[in-house]
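Protocol step 4 of 5: obtain the predicted structure for the target chain.
Materials: sequence only (see below). No template structures provided, no constraints applied. The aim of this step is simply to have a reference model before the mutagenesis design in step 5. Sequence pasted as it appears in the construct record:
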Amino acid sequence: MFSVQIIAYPWDLEDEGIEHVLDVLQGEIGVQGISVVAASGPLCELRARPDASPRIFRSRGGIFFQPDDSHYANTRIKPILSRWLKTRNPIATIAAACHKRDMKLRFILPTRRIGRVADRFPVTVAKSAFGDASDLCICPINLDVEAFLQGLVTDLCQNYAPDSIELYGMDRAFETGVLATSADRYALGPGGEALYSVCFCESCRQSATRDGVDAEAAARSAGATLSRAIESGRVVEGSLEDLLGADRVLDAYVATLRDRHIEVVGRLSDAASCDLVLHVSAAADRNAKWLSRVSSGCARLNAEADIPLSESPDDALTFAHDVAGRRDDLHCEAQIPAREATFGDPPLAVQAMKLLVDRGVGGVNLDHYGVMGQVELASAKQAVRYARRAANIG
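Step 4 output (structure tokens):
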């Protein structure tokens, strides 16, 4: 069934009154559900809502709900609460209000960047071929990280009964984030940047070694390719797939770690009592076979769509929609920014929604409530009305 959902941070709902905001979103705008961010890495949000205070919301990240400690007994990682939360638990109030209204409730859960976990538990961090340790990203292949993610999924399912949980970060097999703050991150070219993102942490190396892959040789090969590019000032030509095609050892290493990611998502699916949704970002691995396999335990893909909308093969939505179309059990949604110029003009917002409905997506997610002013909400109201009529959902 086609649906329109809106993404929201819990503080943006709480500040205006959870009941009031949901009344507006469901009764006036017409959305069928809400996607609540349940955890995040460091963030800085410029808030467009009237009377928002503070106008700029900063957080070092963490989880945005009070955890049930019983779900984290199998991991050395303990949930780190955002300081904003203190002793409150607004997600519980949001969940209860959604259930009362029969609104769909989704939680957004990052899998690689969660608050200060990388700082507090350095054994969990992703590493480059040179051994550069990330200060942002944890590695899902690490057994403690996997058990921690399972605990988060189980905690959210058992205590708040969502309809779905959306996994961020698992649309790619690798992310080290070691170049994220470097002014030279693009100097290596797409292939070099992708190769720098391949994780060579201890857990990944051990996993590959158990599969009979020479992880140390793979690291040396990756390091040699990157060193030549760095020292010569020349970009690494081609994509990561091109590099793997010319390097059997590195190809075998990447293949075994991709298999591990598929297994991790499968076990997260087993831990969930609701649907899982795989978020597909602009940085997703453009490997259709792998994305289809890693999403095998998921009911939907939610792909970021460019604004203005395009059907370029490089667009995440085009890619995800093609992958979903190859399977009968997988549906594709589109996620669009609600603060772009499109939502500053109701006719353009309706046009964008029409294009998405015509492309056959299973739903639209507006990103996000906190950055929407009154004009954007008015545009969303018209766009949602059009989508409901066009999709015949009443």
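Step 4 remarks: The chain has 14 helices and 14 strands. The CA atoms of residues 47 and 55 lie 5 Å apart.
Proceed to step 5.
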